[in-house]
Specification:
This protein is mainly β. It has two domains: about 1-35 and about 145-360, monomeric porin ompg (Porin, Beta Barrel); about 40-140, no CATH class. The chain is built from two helices and 21 strands. The protein has helices at about 1-10, 15-30; strands spanning about 40-45, 50-60, 65, 75, 80-95, 100-105, 110-115, 130, 135-140, 150-160, 165-175, 180-195, 195-210, 215-225, 230-250, 250-265, 275-290, 295-305, 315-325, 330-340, 350-360. The strands form two sheets. It has a twelve-stranded antiparallel beta barrel. Strand 16 and strand 17 form a beta hairpin.
């Protein structure tokens, strides 16, 4: 069925990579469907004295995601909360990047959060009292595998009659995390068909990271990509990466990345395969609104310095604007740019793409 869909939308396109990516996205959704739900016994007390009983899902981007029985999932601005209590185990991160693990409690002093150590993990500081407004992130440490998965799935399609051009885009990500580790799968596919000419662009990346102190993260990654516009049949890579959150507040996140990667490249029309060692240097910037409907701007870029081929370098950049149109549903304007200063003869140096998609988030 997936193969038939790809052929129908973009005649002449190779269906196998797209079908694999679509199947991966659907599999992620099916995995989430039977996930366990926690008992709704958490209590959020607002500055005006009102209390709401439910389940704390997360704190990020200045808003507490809170699930209730009566009004479903709501988002509460973090600056209107006096205190929260929960017997579940959470990771709590403050502005300085310090992490605390345990249950959540309160004191008689307003605007305070107590993180009490539990058997679920070793806290950097046990039983600490934090100012509510100094807390920038709260993440549940779930006991079940499925309940630790989060992610999104995006899809977009356009057709222009004047030029007989059809475009299909599919992308998504799935993240697993516990107290010390995080695994992330990202995948996307772009297919463009115009008359008898069809081009495609596929990317799939997996990373596994270990959280360290003071906002540092180290990990390994693996990826595969193909881009007909750049004449790239397949690029496979393995990498060792280190990253650090430079800024993390309730409105802004700024991160930097550095590592070393080995790549294997095969280009269209070439019988030879090249192997390279590269140094990736990257950054990520996110800026988000504090009030509903939620919107955020996300910009990421990586510059690769090639140590094997003299004076060769390449770069990738992505920028997206997400705007919430319903609960867990977003309208996304996305742009992607790829550049290689020494492509094979006859191939373009760069490729860029603009597209609009609908995104659904889960977890």
């Amino acid at each position: 069925m997936l193969t038939g869909l790809v052929k129908k939308v973009c005649p002449g396109a190779s269906p196998r990579p797209a079908a694999i990516l679509i199947a991966a996205g659907l599999a992620a959704i099916l995995l989430i469907a039977p996930g366990a739900y926690a008992d709704k016994t958490d209590v959020v007390t607002l500055n005006n004295g009102s209390s709401i009983v439910g389940e704390i899902r997360s704190l990020s981007q200045g808003q507490l995601q809170y699930k209730t029985d009566d009004i479903s999932t709501i988002y509460v601005n973090w600056d209107v909360i006096d205190h929260v209590t929960s017997e579940s185990v959470f990771e709590v991160v403050n502005k300085a990047g310090l992490k605390y693990y345990g249950t959540l409690g309160s004191t008689q002093e307003p605007g305070r959060l107590v993180v009490a150590a539990s058997d679920a993990g070793t806290a950097e500081a046990a039983g600490d009292t934090l100012a509510i407004l100094d807390v920038v992130q709260i993440t549940p440490i779930k006991q079940h595998f499925l309940s630790r998965l989060r992610g999104s799935l995006s899809a977009g399609f356009s057709y222009t009659k004047a030029t007989s051009t059809a475009e299909l885009s599919l992308s998504g990500n799935t993240t697993y995390r516990d107290e010390k580790y995080q695994g992330t799968l990202d995948y996307n596919a772009y297919l463009t068909a115009q008359a008898d000419d069809t081009t495609s662009n596929y990317t799939a990346k997996f990373s596994f990271s270990r959280f360290l102190r003071r906002r540092w993260t180290v990990g390994v990654g693996a990826g595969a990509e193909a881009n007909e516009e750049l004449g790239l049949d397949m690029r496979l890579n393995l990498s060792l990466l280190g990253s650090r959150l430079l800024v993390e507040t309730n409105k802004t996140v700024l991160a930097a990345l550095v590592g070393v990667a080995g790549t294997r490249e095969q280009y269209t029309g070439s019988d030879s395969t090249s192997y390279n060692i590269e140094i990736p240097l990257g950054f990520g910037y996110t800026r988000f609104t504090f009030h509903n409907p939620k919107s955020n701007i996300d910009i990421q870029g990586v510059f690769y310095v090639n140590l094997t081929t003299h004076d060769r370098y390449r770069a990738t950049a992505n920028a997206s604007l997400n705007h919430e149109i319903a609960t867990n549903l977003y309208l996304v304007l996305n742009s992607n740019y790829q550049y290689d200063n020494k492509p094979p003869p006859g191939s373009a140096k760069d490729d860029y793409r603009l597209n609009t998609t609908i995104q659904w988030t889960f977890g």
